C-alpha cells in the first residue's frame, strides 16, 4: 500500500461528506417547494399584449427533477459508504502492519482520524511540531 491509497481513503471520506451536504441541501429545497405549494406568476398577452393574466400551479418539473437528483445522490452515498468500508479495512490493516509504533500513530491520526499536521503533532506530545511529524510521515512513505 502506498500514500496514494492513503490519500484515496481520505478523499473518499471527503466525498461522502460532500454527498451528505448535497442530500441535505436537496431535502431542504424539496421541503421548501412542498411548503410553498403553488407558484403564482403573471404574464402579458391577448389584445396586442395589453392584457395581464395570473398563472398559478405547482412546479412539478422542478420538484420532480430535485426528487430524482435526491434519489441518485442517496444511491451514490450508499455505494460510496460501502467502498469506504472496504478501503478502511485495508488501510487499517496496512497501518497495523507498520513496525514503527510512532509512524503507526502518525498514520492513524492523519488518515483514520483525519487530523491536520498541527493536531497530529499535539496528539504526539513531546517536542513534536507540525513540520516534524509531516517530515517523518514523508520520509516513511519515501516522498
In short:
This protein is mainly alpha-helical and 143 residues long.
Written description of the protein model:
Keywords: Coiled coil. This protein has 143 residues and is mostly helical. It folds into two domains: 97 residues; 45 residues. Helices cover 73% and strands 10% of the residues. The protein has five helices and two strands; from the N terminus they run αββαααα. The protein has a two-stranded antiparallel sheet with strand order 1-2. Strand 1 and strand 2 form a beta hairpin. Helix 1 runs antiparallel to helix 2, helix 3 packs across helix 4 and helix 4 packs across helix 5. It is elongated and about 85 Å long. The mean pLDDT is 90.
First and last CA, distance = 14 Å
> Element order, helices and strands?
HEEHHHH
Rg computed from alpha carbons, rounded to a whole number of angstroms: 26 Å
Q: What is the strand tally?
A: 2
Question: Class by helix and strand content?
Answer: mainly alpha
Topology record:
Layout lengths: L2 H34 L2 E7 L5 E7 L2 H38 L3 H12 L4 H8 L5 H12 L2
Antiparallel strand pairs: 1-2
Helix pairs in contact: 1-2, 2-3, 3-4, 4-5
Q: Which characteristics define this entry?
A:
143 residues, mainly alpha, 2 domains, two-stranded antiparallel sheet, 5 helices, 2 strands, elongated, coiled coil
Amino acid at each position: 500500500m502506498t500514500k496514494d491509497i492513503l490519500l484515496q481513503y481520505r478523499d473518499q471520506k471527503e466525498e461522502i461528506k460532500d454527498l451528505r451536504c448535497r442530500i441535505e441541501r436537496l431535502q431542504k429545497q424539496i421541503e421548501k417547494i412542498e411548503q410553498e405549494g403553488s407558484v403564482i406568476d403573471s404574464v402579458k398577452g391577448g389584445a396586442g399584449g395589453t392584457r395581464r393574466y395570473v398563472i398559478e400551479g405547482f412546479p412539478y418539473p422542478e420538484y420532480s427533477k430535485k426528487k430524482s437528483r435526491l434519489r441518485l445522490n442517496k444511491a451514490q452515498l450508499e455505494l460510496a459508504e460501502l467502498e469506504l468500508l472496504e478501503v478502511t479495512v485495508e488501510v487499517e490493516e496496512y497501518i497495523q502492519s507498520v513496525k514503527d509504533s510512532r509512524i503507526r500513530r502518525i498514520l492513524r491520526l492523519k488518515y483514520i482520524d483525519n487530523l491536520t499536521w498541527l493536531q497530529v503533532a499535539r496528539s504526539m506530545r513531546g517536542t513534536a511540531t507540525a513540520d516534524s511529524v509531516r517530515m517523518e510521515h514523508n520520509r516513511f512513505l519515501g516522498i
